[in-house]
Amino acid sequence: MYVKQFDDSGCVILGLYVDDIWIFGNNMHVINDVKSFLSNNFDMKDLGPVDLILGIKLIKKDDDIVLTLSHYVKKILEKINYFDIKTDSTPYDSSIKLKELSEGISSHKYSQIIGSLLHLTNFSRPDIAYAIGTMGRYTHNPDHSHWIALEKDFRYLKGIINYDIHYTCFPVVIEGFSDDVN
101 and 33 in one domain? Predict the structure, then answer.
């Protein structure tokens, strides 16, 4: 993230990830000046208002912004043929004892699914973090009990597929938090 304050004319924030840049601020003239400067100095294409960032859909309605990953959850569930399952109210059943066994299921498929679900926990689904973290310990040698635990998580995600994060009335101050102690 790069932030530039232009005296009294406004503030611009650049979010940079690999080869993508998101430009936002509080003054459209200043934003356009920054875009002109960047396009004159770098090969860049303006794709207009952002609607997708790292798999997260952004929906702007009046003064609200909605972040949704429902399309991502749907894609995961359809890929493994679990979209038409019954829902569940909790993401994890602690009575299922997970352990390593030599007769495992495909560790490649299991680790791919765990990775996809970890992406969800990082952006909008901290409620499944414990379950996915626990199941993620066994990516090298999962067995049938791990798949049963995953199925419970699939049913939970199916039940909350349309739960989104809503931001209203943009704050005057942008706050950032970190667990870095340095």
Answer: no
